[in-house]
C-alpha cells in the first residue's frame, strides 16, 4: 500500500519529543507515608483524649469510645478520598488515574462502613448510658444534638454516592449521570463539618486536635478549589483551544484536531488524556475523558473518540472554531520511564489512541517497536495510513488480530490455536526484554497483562492504565 499519511495526518514531521521530565520515584512513597500518617495522627488524638482508657473501663463508655474512633477514621478517610480525586498534579503524576480511582473507591466504601459503625456504636453507647431505647436515642441525637441534622443529610448523600459506585449500579447509569451523582460526595463531606465542630470532642478537645482537623479540611478544600477549578481556568485562558477540523476515521470513530495558543507550554505527554468539554450547545457542562491520539507537537492536539452513545456522538458534528475546555493532562501511560530498547504495544479497539501517540513520542530505534492491534473486524481498524507510515519510516512491526472475541480470559480473537503466552511470543519475539504498553477494555487488558507477565515481562516494564469509571 502506498504511504499516504504521517503521524497526526498533517503534523510536521519531527524527532520524538521527550515531554515533561520524569516523575521522581520518591513522590509516590511520600504520598503513601503522608496518607498513613494521617490515620496514625487521628488515632493518637483519640488515645490522648482518653479513648483507650474508656475502652479498658468497659460498659457503655467503651462502646461510645470505639464509636468515636470509627468516626475519626471515617472522617480522615473521607478527606483522603477527596484528595485522591482533587487532581493534584504531583499526586496524579506519582500514581496515575486508574490507581487513584481504585484507592478513591476503596476509601469511599471503607469510610462509609466506618461511618455506619460510628453511628451504631455511638447510639448504643449513649443509649446504654441514658438507659434508653437505641432507636429513641438516635432520634433524640438527630433532633437535638448540634449539627446532627446536617450530618444526617451528609450521610445520606454519601450513601447515595457509594451505592451508585457499586459495579452493578454503574453499569446501569450513563457516565454523565454517574458523574453528576458523584459530585454529591463533596456535599456529604461538607455537611459533616458542622457536626464535628459543634459535637466532636476529638475535634475541639484540644488545640492540637483543632489545628490538625482544620488543616486537613483546609488542604482538602484548597486542593479542590485550586486544582479542580483554578488550574483548569488558568490553562483554558492561556491556551484557548478551538476545533480546527473533524475527520472520520472509521465506523463510529472520529478524530478532532485542535489548535490554540502557546501549546508548547501545555505539560502533556503522549499516552495521557484530558477531560473535555466542547461549547457546542446544551450539555457542554458534562466532561468526557478522551486520550491524545497523536504525540503533542507544541502546535496542535488530536483526540479520537468512539461513539459510545453517552454524549460522545456529538463529537462527530463539531464545527470548526468550536471552543474546547480541558482539565488535565492526566494519566501515567507515558514513556517517562522508557530507557531505550525493544517496545511492544498491545491495543484493543479504541485503546489504539494513546498507543498511537506513544509511537510518535517514544525514542525507540528503527525496528525496535512492535504494535499488536486487536479489532473485531477489518472495518474497525483505524489509522492504517499512519501505522503504515510508522512501519516504513520507523521500522515498526504492525500486527493485526482481527475477529470476534475468544473465550473469557483470553486477549486473542477466536480461532487462534496458540496459548495466550505463545501467541504473544510469536507476535513479539522480544517481549521478554521489552517495555510493554497495553490499552483496551478492562477484561482484555487484564488478560493481555497476564500473558505479558507469563512471557517474562517484569512489572516495572509493564505499563497500563484502565479507563473504566
UniProtKB/TrEMBL annotation:
| Pfam families cross-referenced by the UniProt entry | Ferric_reduct, NAD_binding_1
* Reported cofactor(s): FAD
Primary localisation category:
membrane
Q: Which residues form the FAD-binding FR-type domain?
A: 236-336
Keywords annotated in UniProt: 2Fe-2S, FAD, Flavoprotein, Iron, Iron-sulfur, Membrane, Metal-binding, Oxidoreductase, Transmembrane, Transmembrane helix
Q: Where is this region: Disordered?
A: 1-26
Entry superkingdom: Bacteria
**Where do the TM regions start and end?**
106-127, 147-166, 178-198, 210-231
**One Gene Ontology cellular component:** membrane
Which compartments is it annotated to reside in?
Membrane
Q: Care to name a GO molecular-function term for this sequence?
A: metal ion binding
Q: Does the keyword tRNA-binding apply?
A: no
Query: Does the record bear Nucleotide-binding in its keywords?
Result: no
The annotated topology with respect to the bilayer is:
Multi-pass membrane protein
This one is known as Predicted ferric reductase
Species of the source: Paractinoplanes atraurantiacus
